[in-house]
Amino acid sequence: MKIYYYISVAASALSLVLSIVLFAVGNTNQSLQNDVQKQQVELQKQQEEINKGAQISQQVGPALLREMAVASVKNENMKKLLANHGYQVNLSSPAPGSSPAPGGTAPAPAATRPAAPSTSEPDYNFNQPAASANSDGFSLQLPFALLSAAIAIIMVAQTVNIFKARNTLREGKAQLADAYRNREALVKQSGDVQNKLQALILDLLLLSKTDEDAKAIVSKYNIQQNGAATAPAGTPAPAEGAK
């Protein structure tokens, strides 16, 4: 029957179009996935920078400033050093800074051969019945139509899923971009805290060459000019000294 032929042609054409769409959207999704991974790496770097600044502002900085503030009570040079960096002498501890997821096939009808007419005269007609050819065509068209329709349904389902994945990737990319922008202020603040403490440590190292109180603080925190500082047990290590 022609209806099964038309179904097969339509389903095959639909599958071809959907395969092209899947290929194109799949490449787009791969590109989006790469962008998302890059953004995640950048966010991780931001978080590490923020954590470093939070450690300095909450642990290292207050302990070092407290030592210097105590020494500045009787040491004018230490007091001037703190004032040059914008710190007021205060023996109370400064407040720590806050730090900021199939279709089956139908049985083909049996072809029946028409009975020969009953006559006494011999029949010399040997024409093949037309019903046999039509029956064979019918039996083949139906399975092909069902198979083509099943493939088209599968392609439609895959196309829907890949479009959903693309929307999810786009939303994730936008969220990561927003998070990156929102953290830029925190990253800048963290860098300022580190730079400020580094400048203070550099001046403290210079002062320690002529001042015993400064030398004692440098020795206590094991501050070195060209290396990372090693703090005594139980005390967080201060930031690396300036070169």
What would a concise description of this structure say?
The chain is an all-alpha fold and 243 residues long. 69% of the residues lie in helices and 0% in strands. The longest helix is centred in the last third of the chain and has 78 residues, at 130-207.
Describe the 3D structure.
This protein has helices at residues 2-72, 76-84, 130-207, 212-221. Helix 1 (2-72) runs parallel beside helix 3 (130-207). It has one domain (2-91, 133-221). The protein has four helices and no strands.
Strand and helix map with partners:
Elements: H1 2-72, H2 76-84, H3 130-207, H4 212-221
Helix pairs in contact: 1-2, 1-3, 1-4, 2-3
Defining key terms:
243 residues; mainly alpha; single chain; 4 helices
Number of domains: 1
| Span of the ends, CA to CA | 88 Å
Element-by-element helix/strand order: HHHH
Global shape: rod-shaped
Biggest sheet character:
none
The number of distinct β-strands equals 0
Radius of gyration: 41 Å
Number of helices: 4
Mean pLDDT: 75
Percent helix, as a range, is 55-70%
Question: In terms of per-residue confidence, which ranges show pLDDT below 50 for 5 or more consecutive residues?
Answer: 93-133, 227-243
Oligomer: single chain
Percentage of β-strand residues: under 5%
- Which structural class best describes the helix and strand composition? mainly alpha
